[in-house]
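Let us practice reading a record.
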Amino acid sequence: MKKLKIKINGKDYLTDPGQTVLEVAKKNGIDIPALCFHPDFPVKGNCRVCSVEVKGYKRLVPSCATTVCDCMEVRTETERVKKARNMNLELIFAEHIEKCPNCIWRFQCPLLGAVKKYGVKLTRFRDRKGARKIYKFRNAVEIDGSQCIDCKNCVEACAMQQNIHYLKFAGKGSRQEIVPRQNEGFKCILCGQCALHCPVSAAQEQSEIAAVEKLLARKKVNRATHPRLRQGLRRGEAAAYKDKEILVAQFAPSVRVTIGEDFKMPYGKDTSGKITAALRQLGFDYVFDINFGADLTTIIEAEELLERIKDKKATRPMFTSCCPGWVNYVELLHPELIPHLATTRSPHIHLAGAVKTFWAKKMKIDPKNIKLVSIMPCTAKKYEAVRPEMKVDGRQVIDQVLTTRELSFLLKKNNIDLARLKPRETDDPLGRFSGAAALFGGSGGVMESALRTADFLACGPKAKLCRAKIDYNEARGLAGIKTAVVDIAGSKVRIAVVNGIGNIDPIIADLNKFDYIEVMACRGGCIGGGGQPIPTTDEIRAQRQQTLYQIDFAKKGFRRSYENKGVLEVIDWIKKNKLEKKVLFTKYHKRNY
C-alpha cells in the first residue's frame, strides 16, 4: 500500500491512507487536544478543541474528522488555531460545572490540563447547566448533568457498544441533556462503560473514597494510641487483634496491568508488588491477591461444569457468573437464563469470604473487626458486594469497593507515586496464585482457567497421563465471539466466549449449540472494565491482555489452579465446617428495578 506524505508544523511524515490528521499526530508525538474523540466510536467532531489549520482550506477543520490526503500541510499552533481552541474550551467550561476538589480526575483531567496548558480564562461565560440533575444507578454509577459537555460518548457506549440503550437525549437545542430511560423497559446493568468513555468525568463511579479514608483515619488513630499494634499484627500475635479494627485490602487480576498507566508507566505494565507496597503505605494491615480467589473460583466452577456435563438432566449450557454486569443483564433482561448461570461466587467474593471465615479463624480474629476493601476494575462490583445473597452470617464480606481509578486518586492524594515504590509481596496464606488465575483479567481467561482444571478433574486417577493441554488458544484474543470444540478427558465440550455484552444476542439465539459459555460485559473483559484508567482502547486492551498471558507463562510449572495447595486447604476447611453454601455458592433471581 502506497504511503501518503503529510507535513505537520513544517515536518514531513509518512502515513497510511485512511488515517485522520489526529491519528497521525498522536502516532508521531504531536499534541493535539481532543475531548469527544474515541476510537471505539465513529468520529463526531463535537467539541472542536482539536481544530487545526490546513493549507488551502478556508476554515479550520477538526483533526479527528479530517482524513489525510497526499502532500497535505497542517499547522496546529497558528494564531487562528489558538484563538478558536481557547474559545471552544471556554464554551465547554460554560457547560461543565467545576467540581475539581472531589473529582477522581482531579490529578489527570484532560480538560483541566488543557486549560492550564493554554492559559484559558474561564469567567467570560455564564455556567448554564448548574441546575441539572445527578442520576445515580444503584450504588455503582452516576451521571452528573451539570458536568456534561455533550460529547455523546456515554450514549454511544451504552447503545453502540453494549446494546443496552439505557441512556438517551432529552430536550432540544441548549436544553438537550442525557437522561436514563426510566420506566421505558430499559435497564442499566451497571457496567460503567459510560464512565470509561466520558472525557470529563460527568459519568463516573459512585465514589467510596471518603468511606475508605475514614477507615484509614481510624486505623491511624489506633496506631498512635497503640504504637506496638502494627508489630503485633505482623507477627500474628492474637492479643494484637482483640477489639482492634483490622484493615485488609485485596486487588483484582486485571488491576495490576492497568493502574500503572495513571502513573505514566507503560501500557500493560505488571505492578503487582508496587500495588501491595502502596496499599501498605496507605495504612492497610494486610494485602491479599484476588488471584488466589480466582484459583478458588476456578476449581469450584470446574467441578460444577463437570457435574452439569455428566448429568443429562442438568441445565446446559452453563454460563460463567464472574462478571456482575453480565449477571445484572440476565436478572434484569433475560431472567429465563438464570438457571444457566454458574452458582459459583466470583473471585473477590470468594476471597473475602475466605478472609472472614478461614483466615479470621486461623488468626483468632472476630470477623466483625475485619474491614475489607476490594480494589476492582469494575463499577458493577460495587453493587455485587452489597447484594444480600453474598453475605456470610448476615454480614457483608466486602465493606468497600474501590475502582482502579479511585485507588489512583487516593494514592495521588496521599503523594504516593506508584512508579517509584519498591515492590513488596502480598500476605500469606492468601497471596499465592497459579498462572491460570492471572488470566481472569481478560476475555477468555475464566474459560481457559476452568478448562485446565476441568480436564485434570475429569481424568481422575489417570490425570498425570491425560492432562497434557494447558494453553487453550481457542479462548484467547479480543474477537467479539469465539467458539470452539475442546477435548476434556476424551469428551467433546462445545465452548463460546462472548467479549462484550453487545455480542450476546447470536449466542442466546443458539444456546443448544454450546455446553459452556463465558460472558464478560465489557470489551476485553476486566482489562476493559468500567473502572479502569482512561483512555482504554482496543490497542491498550491488547497490551494489557498480553501481559496477563506473560504472567501466566512465567509461572512455568504452576499454571493450573488445582496446583494451588493453599486454595485446596481453604476449600477443605470450608467443606469440613459445612460452609459451602455460605462461602462458595450463591443464588440469582429475577429483578425489576
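A brief commentary: Residues 209-292+348-431 form a domain with the Rossmann fold fold (CATH 3.40.50.1780).
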